[in-house]
């Protein structure tokens, strides 16, 4: 199976929605911070299901960073309707703006992915993710209206920062993009990626859609993650896991498919995904595990 690159994943989605106006206050104040500071947020609105517009979609926002910063923690701003949010960073390639987008839109370097129910994400003491002045953030939101009426909200990412850290970290993603989930319970899909450089994984973030029930991750022959999955509680799993060049990660996603039809990979909440994001240090400059093609 092919791996899904972070540029595909690190996008936050909302087509067919009406994005609200920004309040113009994006960006932290800088310096050391023990408090959460909004980094980039986006207003959105979705019509009630059954209306002229689809009750889900993707919306994106770009924001150029005015000063260097080191991020030590992320908090998701995710009211009901936020399926997931992905924040990536790269070179400036458009004016800062809000716009409807596609699930595969985003920058080349992923920072964080999260969803409704995700808890706070704090890197170990002395470890941080670096963003440089002049780089452009790309927020990609996927929103989904499961209510009976119109749904509105403000979603995004808040952060903690530090002036200096001892070690820089990075986010890496791996995923299966060729899914064929037949009807039935306990259906599995699997993919494998190879670690390129020695380091330590400090967080795991499994991501599936509504049929997902469990993700199991094996490092070589050892199970390092085996957790039930809930569409409404997409939590981070911390843990100090040593990795070495040549190690393999095997990702197994388990589904209960009661739709009566074979379900495939796709951007809609009614399609499925099998994705594992993980955060490691030291940073290597590799945004994905194995080449995708």
Can you walk through the features of this model?
By secondary structure, this protein is mostly beta strands. The protein has two domains: 6-166, Jelly Rolls, CATH 2.60.120; 170-281, Sandwich (Jelly Rolls). It has one helix and 21 strands. It has one helix at 6-9; strands at 37-46, 56-64, 69-77, 82-90, 98-100, 109-115, 121-122, 127-131, 136-144, 151-162, 167-168, 170-176, 180-181, 184-194, 199-207, 212-219, 222-228, 237-243, 248-257, 263-264, 274-281. The strands form five sheets. Strands 1, 3, 7, 8, 10 and 11 form a six-stranded mixed β-sheet that branches. A five-stranded antiparallel β-sheet has the order 5-2-9-4-6. The chain is globular, with a radius of gyration of 18 Å. The termini are close together. Residues 1-24 have low confidence and may be disordered.
């Amino acid at each position: 199976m092919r791996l899904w690159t972070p540029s595909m994943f690190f996008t936050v989605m909302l087509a067919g929605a009406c994005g609200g106006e920004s309040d113009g206050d994006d960006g932290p104040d800088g310096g050391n911070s023990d408090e959460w500071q909004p980094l980039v947020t986006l207003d959105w609105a979705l019509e009630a299901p059954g209306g002229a517009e689809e009750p889900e979609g993707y919306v994106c926002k770009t924001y150029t960073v005015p000063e260097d910063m080191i991020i030590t923690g992320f908090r998701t701003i995710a009211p009901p309707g936020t399926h997931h949010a992905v924040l990536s960073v790269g070179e400036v390639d458009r004016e800062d703006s809000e716009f409807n987008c596609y699930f595969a839109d985003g920058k080349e370097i992923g920072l964080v992915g999260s969803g409704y129910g995700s808890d706070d994400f704090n890197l170990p003491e002395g470890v941080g993710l670096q963003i440089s002045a002049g780089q452009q953030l790309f927020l990609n939101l996927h929103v989904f209206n499961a209510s009976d009426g119109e749904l509105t909200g403000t979603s995004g990412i808040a952060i903690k920062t530090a002036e200096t850290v001892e070690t820089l970290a990075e986010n890496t993603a791996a995923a299966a993009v060729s899914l064929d989930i037949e009807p039935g319970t306990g259906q599995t899909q699997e993919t494998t990626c190879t670690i390129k450089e020695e380091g330590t994984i400090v967080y795991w973030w499994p991501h599936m859609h509504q049929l997902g029930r469990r993700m199991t991750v094996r490092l070589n022959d050892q199970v390092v993650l085996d957790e039930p999955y809930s569409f409404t509680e997409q939590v981070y799993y911390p843990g100090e896991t040593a990795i070495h060049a040549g190690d393999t990660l095997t990702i197994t996603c388990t589904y209960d498919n009661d739709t009566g039809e074979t379900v495939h990979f796709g951007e809609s909440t009614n399609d499925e995904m099998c994705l594992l994001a993980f955060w490691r240090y030291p940073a290597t400059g590799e945004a994905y595990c194995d080449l995708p093609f």
